[in-house]
Amino acid sequence: MDIKEGFDSNYRYVLVAARRARQLQNGSQPLVNARSGKACRVAQDELDAGLVGYQDKAKPAIDDLPSNTFAR
Fold first, then answer.
1. Which residue from 50, 53, 49 is spatially nearest to 20, judged by alpha carbons?
2. E strand or H helix at 18, and its extent?
3. Residue 34, domain member (yes or no)
4. How far apart (Å, rounded) are the C-alpha atoms in residues 18 and 26?
5. One digit per residue, pLDDT tens: the chain, 72 residues?
6. Of 42, 51, 57, 72, which residue is least crowded by CB atoms under 10 Å?
7. Are 40 and 21 in contact (CB under 8 A)?
């Protein structure tokens, strides 16, 4: 299985699709005229159309972590 364009892994694609499907189930309006009424399929169609994406959270640098992070 190839990695979908715009995603760094298939796992990320599934996570984003699942979150969007949850939004659709909670009342969000679809961004595409989907061929299916199922939230999972609509979310995948939106991702494939490039209408939904994601942003990575910035990971803190080691210097930014509290000093007691590594203490036991």
1. 53
2. helix 10-25
3. yes
4. 12
5. 688 888 888 999 999 999 999 999 999 999 999 889 999 999 999 999 999 888 887 776 777 667 665 555
6. 72
7. yes
Question: Is there a contact between 30 and 37 (Cβ–Cβ < 8 Å)?
Answer: no
42 and 31 in contact (C-beta within 8 Å)? no
* Two tokens, residue 4: 């979908």
Amino acid at 28: S
Burial 22-44 (b: 16+ CB within 10 A, else e): eebeeeeeeeeebeeeebbebbb
**Is the residue at 39 inside a domain?**
yes
| Rounded distance between C-alpha atoms, residue 52 and residue 42, angstroms | 11
Q: How many domains does the chain have?
A: 1
Domain presence at residue 32: yes
